[in-house]
Design brief:
two-stranded antiparallel sheet
């Protein structure tokens, strides 16, 4: 996982927003739940569903700024039995929860990858990718694989391991000069 200053700032901002919103909501008098006061004499409408939506968006924003890829989310979606968008949100929430949960996330990702490697012949992720038969044929020659199918298997393993950039780079190097 690639951590950057932007990720840390995004996480801190999301946590501060959530904590500020949640504590202000909880501090409202019983009869005024759902109304937050921005300053004396003014009130902002804010209900629990809005807070929930804001948190869900914070989870997704955190995922997108985290350095994890679509393929990481696809691995975990398969492993957790969720769709990819749900996995992205779950990954974002684990990042927001802190370093211990990020460590758990990394372990889940490793377990998911190991599980997927056992079924590499299914070409499930290759089928979801943008790579074509022609790409596989070019890469087979470049990598020294016997057939395009062997290259598809290698592409599949690379996608499982989160190395789509490596496949793209190999394709770039293998592409015939115009």
């Amino acid at each position: 996982m690639k951590h950057s200053k932007t990720l840390y700032l995004s996480v801190l901002l999301a946590i501060a927003t959530i904590l500020t919103t949640s504590s202000a909501f909880a501090a409202a008098p019983t009869g005024q739940r759902g109304v937050l006061s921005a300053r004396p004499g003014t009130a902002l409408k804010c209900d629990e569903s809005e807070i929930s939506q804001n948190y869900a968006q914070a989870e997704l924003d955190t995922f997108f700024s985290s350095g994890y890829s679509y393929w990481d989310a696809a691995q975990l979606a398969s492993y957790w039995g969720q769709d990819v968008d749900e996995a992205k949100a779950r990954m974002g929430s684990k990042i927001l929860w802190g370093p211990a949960d990020v460590a758990l996330l990394e372990q889940f990702l490793l377990d998911a990858r190991l599980e997927s490697l056992q079924s590499v012949n299914d070409l499930r992720f290759y089928g979801e990718s943008r790579y074509t038969y022609d790409d596989a044929a070019v890469l087979a020659e470049f990598w020294g694989d016997a057939t395009p199918y062997d290259a598809k298997l290698r592409i599949e393993r690379n996608l499982i391991m989160g190395n789509a950039d490596e496949v793209d780079y190999a394709l770039e190097l293998a592409a015939p000069e115009p």
